[in-house]
């Protein structure tokens, strides 16, 4: 309809497409470059000429990382934490939201305010830290899992979505004698599944990338998460307990090791990303419209 | 923004024998809500009580209750501290750049992307643009340090083609704040634009058709139709953003910075972490944190008032 072409319009389109091509390149090239560096030899990296393709291809950096016990340990820790945290956090939010959207919940508006307040005020870093340490959670995984379980944002969005569901459906199931728990898991959950998927993805990514709380609370190296491990490798350019591993002491450039560790860390996200994209966009849209 | 539905009163004529069922329903509803309630009380409300250590001389051995009151001592201390003011200035300056460039970038991004008619190109571009949002600041800072490295970095190699000597980007104080803002845009511009895409997708297409029949150019359609429809969302996000004007996210700065650029990049959050947790000055840093969040809240309330008066739009 409005696609008649004037010279200025053509110039604009040319500029616009060029702009977005450059934009995409600016995002993709650093990653391709990181992969290329991680696969190049010591001398290849040293020459400073690695672009989009590795120089003197090698896989030693990856062999070294996947052979490092501390690194593997942190990978396993992160998988464990991500799964536990995500399941608990989404389940608690869904349950809370369902209760909150129920007509028979006495004290509903008070409960709503109760959830809303912490979204705008918080005790801040130090009081929270002192509390968690005071509860004896220092250097335990509970310190990483428990304090971040409730998300006011998830609860409110879930509540809004549940409020939109057809009332007759819930009422007729209730007439048939279904209890609240059955109602929630058999009828409500399947209906809010896209939203649930979106929150599962948001949480999982958040917990996978968790670093700050590890910095605050975890002292044991054996309990480090992947991001924390990566940060150590990026700043010190070496693996923990590396003397045990003879692979490639001489042929791996520090940059090489860093980029290989970085790629291993983001690999799960990159692999899952294309498949889950529709869910998180849904989540962001619904959050935008109803939040 | 958030509407609380009014509680509907139970119908008076409900039969008595159902009260037992209702009681059981209520019980299971409370059971469903219990985890949320308990966790919020312990991990959100109890730290609020912990704020009182800002007015005490907190000692780990005495605990919050038994520590001695010192009134506003800690506030007086940091207000007189030159170091604090330089941190405060950095926080405001970085935030100002974030607002000027970081806040407007997704708006412009959404407007420009809306002009892409090649559907496939647009979809692929959007998919790529969201990606960095899902990566941690550790990964982003690792990527930036790698690509901007003076010895092995691709970008300096690229500059070499034009005869430009390698630049030490990450350690150059004059460039560092710009890099911080750029990194934020690079990471989040696509993601931030989703909200605006949602708004643009919701605009009635007949408006554009009518404008086109009246001979309005595409440019005028954007000015007179698209942008006015985006204003409520822009205003909403702007107000929410203002509340955080005294706060620069910890991870971005802490993970990107290095000792050579501390002077231009240390902000309140990194300062609170360094002297609060590494030097255990719990009361002093709680006082700073409290001041920061009160100022942010005050700004939110004032700007919400102003916005309501001027544009008729507000958060609440």
TrEMBL record, chain A:
Keywords: Cell membrane, Membrane, Transmembrane, Transmembrane helix, Transport. The chain crosses the membrane at residues 12-37, 79-100, 112-135, 141-162, 183-208, 259-276. Residues 75-276 form the ABC transmembrane type-1 domain. InterPro entries: MetI-like, MetI-like_sf. CDD domains: TM_PBP2. Pfam families: BPD_transp_1 (PF00528). It is a multi-pass membrane protein. This is Carbohydrate ABC transporter permease. It comes from Cohnella silvisoli. The lineage of its organism: Bacteria, Bacillati, Bacillota, Bacilli, Bacillales.
């Amino acid at each position: 309809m409005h696609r008649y072409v004037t010279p200025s319009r053509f110039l604009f389109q040319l500029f616009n497409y060029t702009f977005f091509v450059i934009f995409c390149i600016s995002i993709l090239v650093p990653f391709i470059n990181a992969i290329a560096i991680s696969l190049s030899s010591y001398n290849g990296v040293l020459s400073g000429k690695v672009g989009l393709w590795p120089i003197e291809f090698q896989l030693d950096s990856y062999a070294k990382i996947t052979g490092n016990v501390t690194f593997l340990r942190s990978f396993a820790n992160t998988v464990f934490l991500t799964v536990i945290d995500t399941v608990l956090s989404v389940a608690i939010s869904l349950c809370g939201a369902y209760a909150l959207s129920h007509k028979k919940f006495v004290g509903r508006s008070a409960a709503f305010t109760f959830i809303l307040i912490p979204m705008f005020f918080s005790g801040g870093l130090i009081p929270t830290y002192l509390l968690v340490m005071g509860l004896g959670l220092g250097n335990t995984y509970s310190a990483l899992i428990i304090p971040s379980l409730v998300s006011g944002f998830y609860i409110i969005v879930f509540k809004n979505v549940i409020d939109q569901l057809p009332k007759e459906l819930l009422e007729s199931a209730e007439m048939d004698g279904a209890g609240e728990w059955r109602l929630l898991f058999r009828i409500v959950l399947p209906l809010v599944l896209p939203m649930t998927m979106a929150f599962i993805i948001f949480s999982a990514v958040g917990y996978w990338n968790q670093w700050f709380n590890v910095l605050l609370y975890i002292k044991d190296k054996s309990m480090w998460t992947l991001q924390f491990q990566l940060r150590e490798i990026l700043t010190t350019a070496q693996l923990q307990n590396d003397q045990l591993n003879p692979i490639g002491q001489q042929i791996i450039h520090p940059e090489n090791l860093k980029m290989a560790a970085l790629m291993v860390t983001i690999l799960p996200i990159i692999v899952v990303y294309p498949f889950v994209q529709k869910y998180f966009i849904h989540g962001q849209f619904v959050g935008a419209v109803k939040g | 923004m958030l509407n609380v539905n009014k509680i509907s009163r139970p119908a008076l004529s409900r039969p008595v024998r159902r009260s037992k069922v209702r009681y059981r329903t209520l019980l299971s509803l409370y059971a469903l809500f219990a985890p949320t309630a308990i966790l919020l009380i312990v991990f959100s409300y109890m730290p609020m009580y912990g704020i009182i250590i800002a007015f005490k001389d907190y000692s780990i051995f005495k605990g919050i209750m038994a520590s001695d009151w010192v009134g506003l001592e800690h506030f007086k201390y940091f207000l007189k501290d030159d170091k604090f003011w330089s941190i405060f200035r950095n926080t405001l300056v970085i935030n100002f750049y974030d607002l000027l460039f970081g806040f407007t970038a997704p708006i412009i991004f959404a407007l420009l992307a809306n002009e892409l008619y090649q559907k496939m190109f647009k979809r692929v571009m959007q998919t790529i643009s969201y990606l960095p949002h899902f990566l941690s600041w550790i990964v982003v800072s690792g990527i930036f340090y790698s690509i901007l490295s003076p010895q092995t970095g691709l970008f300096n190699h690229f500059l070499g083609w034009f005869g430009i000597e390698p630049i030490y980007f990450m350690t150059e104080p004059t460039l560092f704040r710009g890099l911080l803002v750029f990194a934020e845009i690079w990471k989040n511009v696509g993601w931030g634009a989703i909200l605006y895409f949602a708004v643009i997708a919701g605009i009635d297409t007949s408006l554009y058709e009518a404008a086109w029949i009246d001979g309005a150019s595409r440019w005028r359609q954007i000015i007179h139709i698209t942008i006015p429809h985006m204003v409520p969302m822009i205003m909403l996000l702007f107000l929410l953003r203002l509340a955080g004007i005294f706060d620069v996210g910890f991870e971005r700065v802490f993970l990107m910075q290095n000792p050579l650029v501390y002077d231009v990049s240390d902000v309140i959050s990194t300062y609170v972490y360094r002297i609060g947790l590494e030097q255990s000055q719990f009361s002093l840093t709680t006082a700073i944190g409290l001041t920061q969040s009160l100022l942010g809240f005050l700004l939110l309330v004032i700007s919400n008032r102003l916005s309501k008066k001027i544009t008729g739009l507000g958060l609440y």
